[in-house]
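Bug #77: duplicate submission created two jobs. Keeping one. Sequence:
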Amino acid sequence: MSYSLQVFVSSACYELRDLRAAVQSWLKNLGLTPILSDEGGFPHEEGLPPYAACLRVLETCPLVVGVIDRQYGHPFEDWGPYEQYRGLSPTHAELRHALDSGKRLLLFVHSDIWAFYEVWRENAGAFKTSAPYGLEEATLRMLHEFKTRSPAPWIERFANVTVLLESLNREFVNQLYVHLREREKQTADTAGYFLDKIIETAPEVREKITVGLNPALVADREALRSRLSEIEEELEKTRGKTEERIFDLEKEKSEVHGRLSTVSGQLDQARMLLARSVMKDISWLDFIRRTMVPPQPGRVPFHNSVEVALRGYHAAAGGQNIVPLLREVTWSLVPYNENGLHRGYNAAIIFKGDNFVPGVVYTWRRCGESDSRAGNDDYFWRLPNIYFGSYLEVSSGDNEPEAALSWRNYEFLVKNPEGRTSEWVPFTYPFDDASLEKIRTDSFRVGTNLLEAGKPAEAVEPLRKAYVFSDRMLGTQAQEALSKKAMWERALNEAALSKLRFRVGDQLSVVAGPHAGASGVVKNLLPRHLHAYVISSTHGEEFQASDAQVESAGGL
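Kept job's structure:
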C-alpha cells in the first residue's frame, strides 16, 4: 500500500509498551506511518511541554488508535495553548483532542476495565474501598466521559493483544475508507458550495467576482460577445444580398461562437479555482461573507463546515482574542429536518449571544456552585452540535416536560478556543409549576403503590421521575427530594435483589471466574453490584462473585 498516512497511537506508555509495539508493527506492515510519543525522533515544538507538543502532532494525523487500561497517567497543569486540558493526563487529553478535532478514533478498552467500569458506575462509593490493584478511578471517569459523549466514538473491548489486532484488522480499513471518502467529499462540497453562492448572487456582484478572476479573459469574452452582436445585425441587413457575404458572415459567426465557448469555459474553471481556494484568502472570505451569506435565520441547522467558518469569521477576524457573550440558555423543540437540511434530533438546548467562533465549547454546573478551582478542571467541556456567530444548539431529549426540567437550576458557560469565557448564565424556561407538581405527586403515588404490591422493577421509573422532579423543583438538599431519592433507590435495590437467586446464609460453590473451585457461605449482598455476593470461604477469606459464577452447594 503506497499511501503513507500517519496514524497516532495513544495510550499509557509504560503499562502497555508491548501492546504499543505490536500495534506499531501492524500499522507499518499495512504501509502506514505510526506516530508514538515514546519513539525516538518524535517531533517537539520550542516552548511547548512534550506532552502538549503531542497534540500538535496529533492534529496532523487523520486517524487515531487509543487504548485504555488500568493506569490513567500523570495529570499535568501546564498545557501551553491547550489550556482546556489542564489537570488531564496525556492519554486523556490526546483522546479528547482527537474527538474535539474531528479525527476518526478507534478506542480499545481492556475487558477487565470494562467490567470494573460497570461496577463503578453502579456504586462508585463502594468501589473506592475495593478497587483492584493498579486501577485508578480517574481511568473509569475518563471511560465514562467517552462512553456518554454525544455522538459516542467507536469503542470496542479487547482481552489481549491478539484480540486487539484482530479487531483492528476488521475495522481499520473501513475507517480508512470513510476518512478518504469524507476528505474527497469535503473538497467537492466546498467548491460546489462557493460556486453555488457565486451563481445565486446578484448580477453586479457576480460580475465583480468574474472581473476579479481574470481581467484579460473577461475582456476577450466581452469583445467576442460584441462582435457576435455585430455579425447578427449585419446578417439581418444582408438578407437577400450576395451569397458570398452571407457565407463569410456565417463562417465568422461560427468561429466567434467557438472562441466564446472556449473563453466561457476558462472562466468557469477560474470560478471553480476560486471556490477551492477562497478559504485561504482572507479578503475573498470577508467579501463573500458580507455579500453572499445571509444573516443567521433563526434555528436553521447547517452542518457544512464552510458555512460555520463563514458565520463565525467576524468574531475571529485578525486573530483577535474575542470574549464570547452569552445572553440566554433555554430548551426548545426543533424540526428533525429543516429547509432541506438534516438536524438529526427533535429537541435542543439553545444558546443565544454573540462572538461565538468555530471551536467554541460549553459547560454547566448547579446554580451557585463555586468555580474556584484553578482551570476549572472539574468541568467537562463539550462542542455544540450546531453553531453560528450568535447561536449555539445542543441536542437534547424531547420528552416534555422532563427534558427541560432536567436543566432547571443549572447555569451555563461558553469558552472560545483561546480560553476566553463568558459569564455564567442560568437556564430559563417558561415552566408550568402546577402541571409539574401534579406529575411529581402522581408519579410518586404510582411508584409507591407498585413497590408495596411487590413490583419493584415496575416501580423504578415512576419513582425516578418523582425524585428528579422533586430535585429540580425543591432543591437537591430538600428533605422531600432526599426522601424521594431514598424510595427510588429502595426500588432499584429490590428490583436488583429480585434477579439474584441466593440470599445471605446460602452455601455456594464458585464455578467460574478467578475464584472458581472455592466454596463458602453468603455473608452479605450488594444487589446493584456486578459481583453481588460477598462470600466467606471455608478458609475464612472473603471474596466477591456474580450470580453467573456461582451455584448452590446444597448441604456443604
